[in-house]
Amino acid sequence: MPSTGQKLMIHNPYYYPDWSLQAVLNSRKILNLISVSPTITYCTDDVAEMPSETRRCLLPNERDLMYFKDYNFHNCMVECRMNMTIKMCNCTPFVYVHSGVNVTDVKICTLRDVKCLREHQKLLMSDSLGQNATSNDFTVLEKVTGRACGCLPDCESTEYYAESSAGVLNFKYIRSNAYTDVKITNDSSILNVYFNDLVGIKNRMDVKFDWHTLLGKR
């Protein structure tokens, strides 16, 4: 089957891979350099002690997901899309079936279910499962899950951001001893992935004002 290249997804290893993650297309006959920059966000003890309703974010151990061990916003949205598809079309796309899902309990969508999936595509592909939906879809969403699945952002997370730089691959400049046991053809491409720097960005989520600070300014 003819191919235009490969799709490379850059993401946290604990995120379930789907269409919403950052992706880089690696075409044929090119040299692709992809630099990765990590960004870590953590919260202090003062933030962790606050109720989740106040800080409006969740720690990995504060909510149980059905198909994933630890909570994160991305997997919560994936699970919500899966459950919404089951409720609306009585099936789930094969991309949402992984080792944590009992396939005997879940029907895999077939070509006969494409019509239903297309009818609800706008809702199911929404970033917030309701933001880009119609009023009728949002009513269904409220009845099924209640307030956009309840997926709150992560209080602590590790994200990876990639930048790609590509050029035409000239095969006459390739040294054969640089790629041991690799068969290079005229349709090949070379992909190099590396960290952009020795350090990354670290963000801290902290309490800026508390009642001591407010009383002290009066």
TrEMBL record:
Annotated membrane topology: Multi-pass membrane protein
The protein's GO terms of the molecular function aspect are: ligand-gated sodium channel activity
Q: What species is given as this protein's source?
A: Callosobruchus maculatus
Q: What are the subcellular locations of this protein?
A: Membrane
Protein family according to the UniProt entry: Belongs to the amiloride-sensitive sodium channel (TC 1.A.6) family.
Stored InterPro entries? ENaC
Kindly give the Pfam families that the UniProt entry links to this protein. ASC
Provide the protein name.
Uncharacterized protein
A GO cellular-component term linked to this record: plasma membrane
**Highest taxon, organism lineage:** Eukaryota
Q: Which UniProt keywords apply?
A: Ion channel, Ion transport, Membrane, Sodium, Sodium channel, Sodium transport, Transmembrane, Transmembrane helix, Transport
